[in-house]
Structure formats: structure tokens, C-alpha cells
Amino acid sequence: MKLIKLIPVFVLAAAAFSYTVFSNESDSGKCVGFLSGYGWEVEAKPCGSSDVNIPAVFDEVYKSYNAMQLEAGLDLSPYAGSSGTRYTFLVKNYPVDAGENVYADVLCVNGEPVAGDIMTVSINGFMHSLKRSDM
Fold it and tell me: Which residues in 42-67 are b (16+ Cβ under 10 Å) and which e?
């Protein structure tokens, strides 16, 4: 599992904490199921959500983020130029003590999960793909 420590990518993840009010139970269930498919157990309701505009042309931040998606068998490039919603969930089964809460982000486009990551929010935190290396 490759950990990404680039500040620009961290900023992308930290943006998940500028929340909008969560109101779509259907998306929540899809996200929890999506994360479960990667072996992650999360709280049933997201702790936040935010609107996301995926750029039509990826800059270095989105190129790095998509490289991380590819590690998990996902690809964000077909959704370039799309709008979506990022849901953030508290992870309940992170395999090691990270010393802080660990979160799972799921990006949905048209109500369907298309990308995600596992991360912490501290300045010395981490972000990695949904693929678990301990399984």
C-alpha cells in the first residue's frame, strides 16, 4: 500500500471537512456497501459531505489522486468534468492505531460511488487508497 504524503493531495482530502448537510440515505447505503467491498467497516451515517467538481483536465493533485484510485482498481478519469458529492465516514476497523481518527472518503457521481480514500486530517496524517494491505 502506497501512502501519499503530498501536501496538495492532503488539501484535497481535508476539503472533505468543509461539510454540507447530509440528506441522502440512499447514497449513504451505497457508500457503506462500497467501502465494505474493500474490507472497511464504517459508521452507518457519514460525518460529513461536500460538493465536488472534478476538473475536466487533471492538475498534479488530481493526477496523484487518480494514481491512488488506480491502486484500488478505480479510475476517476472517466468522470473528468463531472460534479459529485464526497461523503466522509469514520472508519471503525483501521488495522493499526493511527493516533487519531481515521476516515474514509467516497466520491459519488450521479449517486454512484466512483472513487475513495482512507485518511487522517492532521498535518502529519496520511492518505492511501481503499485497498487494504493487511488482508
Answer: beeebbbbbebebeeeeeebbebbbe
Residue range(s) defining the domain that contains residue 24? 3-128
Q: Is residue 124 part of a domain?
A: yes
Grid cell digits, residue 54: 472534478
Q: For 93-104, what is each residue's pLDDT tens digit?
A: 999 999 999 999
- Joined together, the cell numbers standing for residue 44 give 452507518
Q: What is the tally of structural domains in the chain?
A: 1
Predicted confidence (pLDDT) per residue in 78-130, tens digit: 999 999 999 999 999 999 999 999 999 999 999 999 999 999 999 999 999 99
Give this prediction's pTM: 0.82
In a domain, 25, yes or no: yes
